[in-house]
Task: structure prediction
Amino acid sequence: MTDTLMSSFRGLSACAIALTIIAGCAAPAPPPPAPAPAATADTSERSFDEAVQVATDGLMSQLRARSDPSAKTDTKRGIVIDPMVDALSGQQTAATRLLEQRVGERLQSNPQLEVLPFQVASLTKAQYLVTGTMTRIASEQTGTRRVLQIDLAATDLKTGKVVAQASSRARDETLDTNPTPYYRDSPVVVKDKVVDGYIATSKTAPGQPADPVYFERVSTATIISEATTAYDTQNYADALTLYRNAEATASGQQLRVLNGIYLASWKLGRTGEAEEAFGKVVAFGLSNNNLGVKFLFNPDSTNFWSDQQVSGPYGFWLRQIAKQVAATKVCMNVIGHTSRTGTAQYNDRLSLRRATYIKQRLDKEAPELARRTHATGVGFRENLVGTGTDDARDALDRRVEFKITDC
Result:
């Protein structure tokens, strides 16, 4: 089902929808369901399993209040779950996958609900779309960022309105927050307006519309999900085909899609295609003034990471960034970031040194950029993850950002 078809389907009147099932609309409409309870917010800090149960049960209680009392008791309402993400980074991690799995199991245990695969064919069968996020926040008990807030929402697929929302808080005890392979390998922060819309929808109060930028692209999201699963299981040829299929849809110009084409092409050894795809990623990021690239450096230095498996493509990353910035004739701030290890003063200096090095490399690729780029360092003040583990879990915190500025 295409995004356009979904919009048309949602726009049908109640009578028009009924005509696809029975001839005519003479039968009286059933009484409207009772208003759903208010969204469930819980600030108690629980174990992960307990927190997931609280949030999911809160969601189900609101859905139960909306059920039609005249409906057959054996009629199940279908639910699809769009893969859950970390709200600060937009990434999928082992922890968000575990959250998604536990929520799905809890929903499936309800005899009135049926969890369907997140596939385009399921969108016509399901009644609800569930989204979910985890957000690292400060503990009210200790003040440290050792608590994960869970936000779940259910959106009616026909009306596009959120009908249930629930939250809870989990202690980060032994959760694996490593990003999944797609996000671990990604050269950029994969967070655009569509991902932001997903995150916003997960926090939206019942009765309000889901974020339209996200919701109107749900059918393409099913293809992206399938492509990402193929990438994560090392089926790179299938992943590339699926990402290109997603790109061909009306809403295919998304960062997750363009980035997926780059990643799969690089894994398949198609260097030329990979560089072209990375150029599109850069152009998309610059057009939205949102481009954060994961240049990794050796400790306490401005030398790129020694492992060529990691830093091998950095040459053409820099070439494409310089090319795209030069072509758009904009001015740009090159912003260095570091992870949360060491003093603030030390990291401010280190992040500036690294940003300066990137600027110098860009100026060498395109000399006209020398007067249009400026380097700054912000240390760890704008961390997305903030764990200070200095490994794959907080790689996004060691990014270099490129922000368009006034000339």
